[in-house]
Sequence to fold (823 residues):
Amino acid sequence: MNQKISRRLIPLAMAGALSLASQAEIINISSMKYSGPFSINNPVMVDSIDVNSKKFDTASLLKTPLALSAAGKGETVSGPVKLQSTGTALHMLHFTLDNERYVTGKLNVDGIKNYEVYLDGKKLDGDALALKPATHDITIKCLTDGTDPNQAVSVTVDTDRPELLTVNSDKQRRITLDDILIGKDYSSVEVSPAGKYMLANYVYTHDGGATTHTTELTDLTTGRKLGRFNENLHWMPKSELLYYVRNLSGNRQLVTVDPLTNNETVIADNLPAIRFTIAPTEDFIVYTKYQEGPKEKSADLYEIIHPEDRQPGWRNRGSLMKMDLATGLSTPLTFGNRNVSLCNITDDGTKLLYSVSESRLEKRPTALTSFYLLDLKDNTTRQVIDKDGFIGSARISPDGTKIAIVASPDGLNGIGRNLPDDKVANMYEYQLLVMDVATGKITPLTRDFDPAIEIIEWSRNDNSIYFIGEDKDRRNLYRVNLANGKIDNLKAGEEYISSFSLAGNAPVMLYYGMGASNANRLYSLNTKNMRHNMLEDLSGERLDGIGLGECIPWTYVTSRGDSINARYVLPPNFDPSRKYPVIVNYYGGCNPTARIFNSRYPHQVYAAHGYIVLAINPSGCSGFGQEWGSRHVNTAGEGVAEDIIEGVQQFINENQWVDPAKIGCIGASYGGFMTQWLQTKTDLFAAAISHAGISDHTSYWGEGYWGYSYSEVSMANSYPWSHPDLYVKQSPLYNADKIHTPILFLHGDVDTNVPIGESIQMYTALKLLGNETAFVAVKDANHQVTDFKKRKQWQDTIFAWFAKYLQDDDSWWESLYPKKALD
Fold:
């Protein structure tokens, strides 16, 4: 049961304006958990003073370590709590405060002199409370000396917003950003070649951002854990042996490990200090050797010889090397001034597929890739693909007879294209094709298959191709039968598959993934009988005791007759009789807003703050088919913005629990552009946030590291000088006078993808126009905010901006960015 809140009497006329009242109300904490007494012996007085000439003070025993986790497991007591002890002792009092919105207040502890207060496990400095939306654990650690055997302690909280606090809620606790950032997760999972064992590599992120890594070995037949290792282990390609690289005084050794006996064998010395690929025959490795490019004569002035030359390391070039493990002999496989990359090696170790990349700035696509087969027996090379700029990746089959190719619809002369001639394909709408090595014949496998291809793998066991496909806002597992071209959805147990691993010689797959409402879970799949088995539920561990909001799929039809994929997340303990603010999230570019639980904008955390979160995947997203994806090209937001606006309006009309005056929106990168562009189209939004958004297509095109190359996707064959209607007229900067919505601009100050100037110029324009706006730069952050501490501050900034405009409370924002008396 929730504890009833008792309050100081106030005039009735003030009851509706508590947020503005200067007189705080008192919440009496009438029920707490009590643990204790924990008796402490006074120390033996060897001397009368310590090394700093101070006498012993009994009050110093308050700092005696005591596990705070035990506080919440004590017995429930009511009223002022009597701390009974016959001598010196510690006691712990515990209660929770649950708040959907940001709340400040003061904690009062009466009846005892020596105590410490811990808020969510961290010692509170003073009595001021600043409570972010969460279910907070409050522990009061008390010290008594036995002079008063019936010492009574009472606890109260003073706050202007008592209606926002619930004491000792009987509901599950609210999810917070810490639940997203802190905890155990997978970095990779590998199945042994015979399908007998699983190697799971874990990363544990601790509070503060430090990470630790462990690897666990499991027998898949019995489920028995065979060992835990600190080394970065992997499976050998064919034998049931593990391997890792050991560095002994500069000698990098390749060491195999028997999974049953843990016996180690050194199979090679003096490995290169770079990543390598072990051949399936296990007798040689292939690695890339990088040659440093030419340096400038002056350290102070430098010539930029190519748009990519601004990127560190661009002048360096890689060539392939082969190292024989028995002799240690390393021989060059390729030579030249173009970058060479290994694709993979055939099972018999006789053929190697590699790619060569080069630049061609005068025509789209500006980056070209050629693919070659190298016969390692006689060192002869055969070109299989010549200078195609629409190829994403390629892998040769285990038997060397076929090549699986992932390409844009226009790749390989458009053989995988399924579009009218007047449509330009979205380059991210990747297709799967297979080339017959002997004849060169290419077969498109997914031309009429809507999901976009992402990760592919040949199966040695059944000679099928397994792949992850981006299917609307999901990522599914598929298998294609090369004999008949049939594609099967493997019905994986999660909405968003992150990774999979295939056994080479058995019908066994391991995969893990998440959903919109759960973290990662790990499964095995028998690829013969299609039986899935959950092996580990990290989500259950990480989300134990947490209450989440319901995630509901939603589809709406636009005025153009298109059905738009969307979903929304309700706040936990949703009350349909209330009016809720809404936050709309989108990308608006070439990729959907996927069902990723721990995304950069974790929808469940926003919902825990009392928002409904609406995720929309407008036209132009990949994973919906080639025609749909083509709508991203040469539209610069037109049509996409209308999809979003119409969706929000329909969502308001269909749901009486939406507050139409409190709609916010947020997006990043191209989604940041979409945030700005939307505000030039409508006054529907009460607040907007653009992280690293494009404000001027022209400046982004020329200044971002990948500006001109990404524009090959979004502005195919269109340039600032040839299509000012796209680059200028459809840039938010040149429509700034149409914006009335308060926009927060967030940007890493060393962003090389979308330079910070994109936010600076738009912020400046809105300030000159007298609009409400704010600009927060993240120091030393690039396109994404990855630093743990900065990520939390960045996220708090987002929450505070929305609280200011969607919850009519600027206290959080003012606590982060107080007003400054500057002109």
Q: What stands out?
A: The CA atoms of residues 293 and 316 lie 5 Å apart. Residues 788-806 form the longest helix (19 residues).
